[in-house]
Amino acid sequence: MDFELDDALASLQRTAQRFSDEQIAPVAAAFDASGEFPRDVLKAAWELGLSHVFLPEALGGLGLSAVGACVVVEELSRGCSGITTSILSNDLGLTPILVGGTPDQQREWLAPCATDFKILAFALSEPGAGSDVAGLQLHAEKAGNDYVLNGTKAWITNGGEADLYTVFATLDRHARHKGICAFVLPRDTPGLSPGKKEDKMGQRASDTRVLHFDGVRVPAAQRLGAEGEGFKIAMTTLDRTRPLIGALATGIARRALEESLAYAADRKAFGQAIGEFQAVQFMLADMAKDIEASRLLTFQSAWLLDQGRRASKQSSMAKCFSTDAAMKATTDAVQIFGGNGYTKEYPVEKLMRDAKLMQIYEGTNQIQRVVIARELLRG
Ligand code: CAA
Questions:
Q1: Closest CA to ligand 1's atom 6
Q2: Do residues 292 and 3 lie in contact, with contact meaning Cβ atoms separated by under 8 Å?
């Protein structure tokens, strides 16, 4: 077992680290306060090869491994997880085209993402169907060689900013997962309109929206996979992207530990640095061990994917463990900072608000436990 990164990946890690320190962290608080979309930061990340990393080399991309993508995401997330969520949602948006698209569809829709900066979004969740994907209601009615889509998506990251959407709709609401189809839609498709931007607690630099579909006509050539294959395309996509959320969480937890170590060395109480107290030391030690465990689980799930092996259980374990660990680490960081930690003058309250979302999106941590338990019982 080799835990060292090879030279190429170590160099990419340094690039991501520098970008995070110089171009993400300094603007994180401002984007958190304004809720504006950090388009220029995203474009700069794309120009450096730190975004759209799953685009295959044959289509002009980097074709990064899942392990490589996790290395990049962890570094970016240390700077700001909200900005990083916007960056990695491009890979979430393009993965269904890699999973379900024909070579011609991949060339048509993905090759332009390597030459021009394009934002992507993955449109699966709905107002009444977040965890229960098979219960989604966006209706796709057949009309000759086209489909006509009517309904609403919700909680769509990059929803108001995307150039390209991968969208899941059902031909038959009673058929549950067997009725679902996946489509690729460009932004200017008539009848497709982003709705209200959510005013979120954390990760405020990411754009989260409702999407309205009002008689949206989609040619069959824009369907990914066969009719009824959409559910499996969505699940396979999530298996591939949940390790990235593990990496995102590891990045936040690392930042919480770094901030806490510096504060614990500096802040005095009862005549000594608070880091001298065992109560504080135990919180620091827990953060450090959970960061190591998060990274190992995340890399293991990514490595399985890179071997072409099924990784549903490990991806869910990585996502669930790392995001719970990040929630605990950021909450403890606020505790270590005390009253200061509860104010916006210090960076840790933002980390805590940002961490909460990771226990909810890409499948709640309750759903991750469902996936893990089913895989265990299946044997
Ligand atoms: N890979 C391939 N196939 C899979 C699969 C997987 N990981 N998981 C299930 N399937 C197959 C099953 O084998 C079954 O196939 P057959 O019909 O051939 O038997 C079929 O799919 C149906 O499977 P289930 O019976 O297990 O389906 P279910 O309705 O019970 O749901 C679930 C399973 C795990 C709860 C699923 O609905 C789920 O993952 N929900 C969470 C959704 C989610 O993660 N949403 C995140 C949205 S994206 C987001 O948040 C990103 C963002 O904006 C940042």
A1: 235
A2: no
